[in-house]
Structures are given as C-alpha cells and as structure tokens.
Sequence to fold (259 residues):
Amino acid sequence: MKQLRQSAASSLLSLLIWLFMLSDYAESNPVTFIVVNNCPFTIWPATAPNTGNPVIPDDGFCLPPGEAKRIQAPPTWSGRLWARTGCDFTTKSNHACQTGDCQGRYACDGVIGTPPATLVEVSLQPIKSSFDVSLVDGYNLPVSVYANTKSVDEGNCYIGGCGKNINSCCPPELQVKDGRGTVVACKSACLAFNLDVFCCRNAYGSPGKCKANVYSKLFKDACPSYYSYAFDKPSSVSCSSKEYIITFCPSGWGDHILI
Fold:
C-alpha cells in the first residue's frame, strides 16, 4: 500500500511538472498572427477561442485600409478569426456591425461573430499546426493565410484568396444587405434555409449523404481553397511556423479578385 501511495505521488508530481513545463513553453513561445487589411475600407478583425482555450489579447480591434497588426496566441491555441465590416460602436446597441458582429462589442471577449462571415479556423500545435478558411456559415470578405517563409519549418502553408467577389454574384435568397441596399455578405444555404440536406445533419450527417449543392458550388467556384459546405474537401493545410500572415482582400476588392 505504501508503494502504491508513493507511485501515485510520483505520478502526480510528474504530471504537475509536465503541466508547468507546458505552461512555461506556452508563455515563452507564442505564435504570432499578422493581420493585414488590403481592403479599401476599414475592417474590425476579431478572434474567438474554441471550447477550453483562452481568450487571447486583442480579440477585437480596428484596422484601417493598408494597415497591419500583430496579435499573439499560445502555441496550443485553437479558435477562429474573422473580419467585421460596417461597424459603429458609438450607438451602444447590441448590433454594432453589418457583418461578423459579436453582440455589439468592440472586443469580442470570446463571443463568436454572427454569421455570415468568412472564418479562418486555426488549430495550433508546437510540432505542426493546421488551418482552413470556411464558408460553411457564409461569406463577407476574401482572405488568404500563409506562413512567414522565414520561420516556416515544413509543410503546405498557404491558402489563397478568391477568384470572384461572392457578394457580387450572391443569389437574392442568400443576400445580406445594408441600409442602402448594398450586398455586404452572402449566407450559406444552411444558414439561409436551415434544412438538413444543406446543413449535413441527421439523415444527411455523413459524407456519403451530404453532397455539394448549387449554392456550395457557387462558393467553390469563387473560392476553391475554402470549405464551401461541411463535408467539402479542400486541400489539407498544415505546417509548423511561429508566424502566420492573414490578409483580408489579399488581391484587391471588386467583382473579380485574382487568387
């Protein structure tokens, strides 16, 4: 019994040492995201952690055209990043932005943005991280993601932008418009209709049952590197880097955007 207690104590001590080392590693080896605004208008980028991950500093900020901002996350962080558009934080309402709003907050404080909004989804790991861009809930802006080649170790580390501005070809039934009637975002079919066949759930909750549809094909044609629906299969993107560059409107803004 004494040996059992000693063994348990030793295991607990080892676990505590490992957790301390992991915490120390996370604090001393953060991953940097350089967020760039190449759009001709101001955006308000934001982040939200996945369950069990911390809210990172600078989780909501203003980014004028042509400017960039560095934000940092722990090396084992996972979550999402998106850009809000058409924001006015002087109204003190619970809806400050035309797209991507997080309950009217300037700093989202872990609140997920209201769709539709183009999402950069990130899963960081010390050895190899993965990321994707998702239109599963809809689109508001094109975005590219790539690792800083000076710090990259290995792997496929680039997601390109879009060949077309989806807002310009969005079907009327998916459109989100501002007060002047301008299309500012495009809903996914799942978000617009809330049907199992579009949302890949229940009887359609498997790759064999849930297929691309006319709406997801429109998204895929415009942005081939993004997830266009839940069981889409874009190229896998994973690598090891300490710095990632996330650029909104990577090649400009208009009806046709070169990838």
